[in-house]
Amino acid sequence: MRKKLLYTLLVSCLFACSDKDTSYEVVKNDLRAPAYPLVTIDPYASAWSMSDNLYDSPVRHWTGKDFPLIGVVKVDGVSYRFMGTEELEMNAIVPTSQQGDWTGRYTTEKPAGDWTSAGYDDSKWKSDRGAFGTKENEPTAKTQWGTRNIWVRRMVNIDRDLTGIPVYLEFSNDDDAVFYINGVKIHGTGTTCNKNKVVKLPDEALAVLKQGDNIIAAECINPVGNGLLDFGLQIPKHLETVFGNTAVQTSADVQPMQTHYAFTCGGVDLKVTFTAPLFMEDLKLLSRPVNYLTYSVAARDGREHEVEVYFEASPRWALDQPYQQSASKGYEADGLLYLKSGSKEQNILAKQGDDLRIDWGYFYMVAGKENTAYSVGNSTELRKNFVNGTLNSASLEGEDSNGNMALVRSHGKVKNVTDKIMLGYDDIYSIQYFGTNLRPYWNSKGDRTIEAEMLAAYNEYDKLLARCYAFDKKLMEDASAAGGKEYAELCALAYRQSIAAHKLVEAPNGDLLWLSKENNSNGCINTVDLTYPSAPLYLIYNPELEKGMMNGIFHYSESGKWTKPFAAHDLGTYPLANGQVYGGDMPVEESGNMLILTAAIAAVEGNADYAAKHWEVLTTWTDYLVEKGLDPENQLCTDDFAGHFAHNTNLSIKAILGVASYGRLAEMLGKKDVAEAYTTKARQMATEWERMANDGDHYRLTFDKPGTWSQKYNLVWDRLLGLDIFDSKIAEMEIPYYLAKQNIYGLPLDNRETYTKTDWIMWTATMAPDQATFREFIVPVHKFMNETIDRVPMSDWVFTDKPNWRGFKARSVIGGYYMKMLEGKLMQNNNDKIYQTNEKTLCMGNRPPSCWRYAGGLVAG
């Protein structure tokens, strides 16, 4: 109670601060992020800096495509670029399959000889249209490729002299690919999959590229899952740059709701902060599609300086591909100046898939009217006009490459100044849910306008900024107390990433839907085995959001649309939630997930009301686990990327705890006989599990393979929910065994590979007996994120023996990093309440597991 009072007082104090005073207290995050979150609204309105310095690379969407956003401060007439790069607009001289038709020769049997050279005889190879891939899952694939390997040769004609002009390869690959021009290697992807990736041709490749006919050759390996191979060439439309000077960045700091940068620019210091007020208890605010960019300029020499600040955004924020047609305009409303851009087509909810950007709805850059000029036009002209002091509001409409949007804030001679702009996106309709198009939650009834949301965001800025600083400080302190400094820094980086991988809408029946997008995987919407690992974050801050991830799956079964006796895997491909699209079911995985999470919600809320609403389908799923869960058949699980197999011991743990969760829920609902029967069954299954999985000093990966091992991360729920189903000696034996298997960057997932899942490490670590042991698991993960050479939004699938990601980025599952903090929340709930057992005795504080079995659930603190 005292902590809550102190927190309230702190927030009240911060509310009194004006927007001219940004000297809020922060707990510094020293992690060098793989990528820094800038704008985090939803899976589409998502922008990151993927370099150490904010000005060293373009601002990009999480997929890696440019979302150009430039920031420049002019101090006493000298311009310093502090954000983004002067990106090169590109022309395709050899189109990819998305830009035009192309034909290539290919073979799926390893060719003899120098098959990459221009003179190679490929006349016996097959000929067909590119791209090549698994057509059922890759919409750009024109020719089916379903084998492990493919070799492709493409004759291209270059109709101009490219001397002195940089040339870029644009490609898509899934999985490992290598590209050549006239026999000279251009680029190898390693194990990284890409969509529309652009790399500059090295000098040795440029040297053999000639006017006339050339051969681009590529090979690709698809060891598992989907396959794709596509490629083309691009050159810049122009090479001119305007902003020659950059600021000097002095720090970068990622907080849960904010990213802070500091620079020196001539005689002034510049601070830039990106803020997303993602307070999960306030759903209207959580869904408001507006972020803030705050900047503060302060003289370092005590003198006044002439200060102007320039921001420029590209129409590509509202386009899937840069070649799509767009229209931009500027206008005024309620004392604010708006720059707006969107595609001309506006084909709402017409696309579904993973590596896509939104191309319906509108991007907005908004500022206060005072001392502001804004314009729409060609990027080079806008920049020159700013440098020359001639940018004005005469031109407020533009199309395509003439649709860049710029605004200038002129502050005159000042010693210090603080101001802001707002960045936002109105997607009009966000999700299609079983045939019904749903608006975003903030406008679920269609009675709000984006201008009203922007005005509210502008007027609430002071209070929201103070709340964000207070929240960031408290979360960092709480996470540090739970797991140490490194753990807190990882949690800070995970917060916005996980939230921004969801979209909040309201179902036609009034249910809340908090729908995840399976970023950088297969693009599924509302995947249950994303809901499961991300759960700790939402169980801590608002279990209604956890229900929002489960409501659609319950509805799918209860409506009769899904008729199988186990839970579905997904509801479709984002943003279309019309039914499962995944090619294989995960019967034990998803049923166990739903049951455990329903019990976790009951634990947090202190009642089983949510379970009661869905009791019939929960019973069906539990009975399936009783029959099939102890020794799972050869089937997929959430770690399907590692291959699927029978007799999976960790999957069996999930099934057993799913049955135990049902028993706990039955007990909370007063169904005594049901509770006793299923809890007894779960204990019997656990006893049998221990006998079959025991391998002496650890437990096996599969029941039938001695000498194997795996992380038993699912076991964490047994203690957190107080189920007391498995013998405590299992975790006590596994933890030291794991520590002996760690590599420099963490604990592998199992004995088969050196890669890992970082979210599962957090769960495994939470089973450690003390914080010191917990940190032994966490520090290597922190080291990876701090040192990885792959600059992508935090990956959950990485190698443990080298600083490279294996796949997956920008995913919601890193909400699972909060498992250690969830443990603290549940234990605090326990310690705050008095429980009465069925023997009418009282249990308080750190009570033994035997007391848990009769506690009737947890009561929220």
Structure description:
This protein is α+β, with helices and mostly antiparallel strands and 861 residues long. The protein contains 20 helices and 41 strands. The strands form ten sheets. The chain has a nine-stranded antiparallel sheet with strand order 18-19-20-21-29-25-24-23-27. Strands 6, 9, 10, 12, 15 and 17 form a six-stranded mixed sheet that branches. A hairpin with a 2-residue loop joins strand 23 and strand 24 (336-343). Helix 8 (528-541) packs antiparallel against helix 9 (543-558), helix 12 (615-628) runs antiparallel to helix 13 and helix 13 packs antiparallel against helix 14 (672-693). The N and C termini lie close together (10 Å). Residues 1-22 and 833-861 have low confidence and may be disordered.
Brief overview:
Helices cover 30% and strands 27% of the residues. The protein is an alpha+beta fold.
Distance between the termini: 10 Å
What value does the average pLDDT take?
A: 92
Instruction: Give the DSSP E fraction (strand runs of 2 or more residues).
Output: 25-35%
Strand order of the largest sheet: 18-19-20-21-29-25-24-23-27
* Helix-strand category: alpha+beta
Strand runs, count: 41
| Backbone shape | globular
Poorly predicted runs: 1-22, 833-861
- Tally of DSSP helical segments: 20
Largest sheet data: 9 strands, antiparallel
Q: How much helix is in the residues? A: 25-40%
Radius of gyration: 28 Å
